[in-house]
Amino acid sequence: SYIDYAMSVIVGRALPEVRDGLKPVHRRVLYAMFDSGFRPDRSHAKSARSVAETMGNYHPHGDVSIYDTLVRMAQPWSLRYPLVDGQGNFGSPGNDPPAAMRYTEA
After folding, report:
1. How many CB atoms lie within 10 A of CB 71?
2. Smallest Cα–Cα separation from 24: which of 33, 36, 15, 37?
3. Which phi and psi (to 5°) does residue 105 adopt?
4. Range of the domain at 93
5. pTM metric for this prediction
6. Is the pLDDT of residue 23 over 90?
7. What is the reaction catalyzed (predicted)?
8. How far apart are the C-alpha atoms of 87 and 106, rounded to whole Å?
9. Rounded to whole angstroms, how far apart are CA atoms 101 and 64?
């Protein structure tokens, strides 16, 4: 029934995991970046590359949702401790949208 589906979506995708505070898409982006060799001690790579690696290997949904997640993990005003080191226009607290993924690096 619809209630069963709604509950599985809420529990499986909408709520952060208690163990690490991440949703599945956050975990997939971070793992794809790790698996592709993106490390803090190396130079930045285009965000489009990170999104493509995530979508191609781990995340079955669209690239816009993956990029929105990557942007949020790079914004210091969205998370107490940003998980991604972003370079470029990742938006502003005053509702300015981020640049397209081809212009940003992470």
Report:
1. 23
2. 15
3. -130, 155
4. 1-106
5. 0.91
6. yes
7. ATP-dependent breakage, passage and rejoining of double-stranded DNA
8. 6
9. 9
Please state the domain count of the chain.
1
pLDDT confidence of residue 41: 93
Active-site annotation holder among 5, 58, 67, 103: 103
Indicate which CATH number applies to the domain containing 43: 3.90.199.10
Residue 95: CB partners within 8 Å, gap ≥ 6?
none
- CA dihedral of residues 84, 55, 105, 26 (deg, nearest 10): -10
Tell me whether residue 31 is one of the annotated catalytic residues.
no
pLDDT at 1 over 90: no
- Could you tell me which residues come within 8 angstroms of residue 85 by beta carbon, excluding any fewer than 6 positions away? 40, 44, 74, 106
